[in-house]
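Re: the pair you flagged

First of the two:
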Amino acid sequence: MTNSELLPYCMSKPGAEQSVHSDWKATQIKVAGVLFAMAHEVNGRPAVSLKTSPELAELLREEHLDVKPSAHLNKAHWSTLFLDGTLADSRIYYLVDASYQLALELAPEPARRQLLGS
């Protein structure tokens, strides 16, 4: 998988907004102002940083060589997944979905209600 293949999936999430973090040379994807994915390159490899629970982050890092602590974000919650490695695309999509849900939980209540249609 490449960043250009992953970005449309991230942007298909309700309320997703894209911006560029020029210092990190990364594309940030947020919902209601809350970051849920950051697509970038690490040592020339396509990667995405996603938020999980600390327990899941630790488990993923133990099970997959292509999952590392994020260099720029809270390492307890944020992991960088190499898109061109051994992690299955379906697992990456699942983790994008989970990160999006965590971001929604942190979004302001009015924005969350509007996005969820309630």
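Second of the two:
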Amino acid sequence: MIGKLIGALVGRELDRRDGSSGVKGAVLGAAVAGGLRRLGPLGIALGGAYVAKKAYDRHRERQAPRP
């Protein structure tokens, strides 16, 4: 279940780059979830780290002073 959630979050992050439609993100998220499950705990850790880094970068962008 955690793998599916992380797959959905990774799909959302990948789809945010182009912002065209949610279908692409959903399909990529499903594919990523399957790949992460095959890698086992390492895959879940990698997917979680990717999502956490993206969230951290977005937080830093919001906190940065704007000229």
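Residues 2-63 form one domain.

-B.
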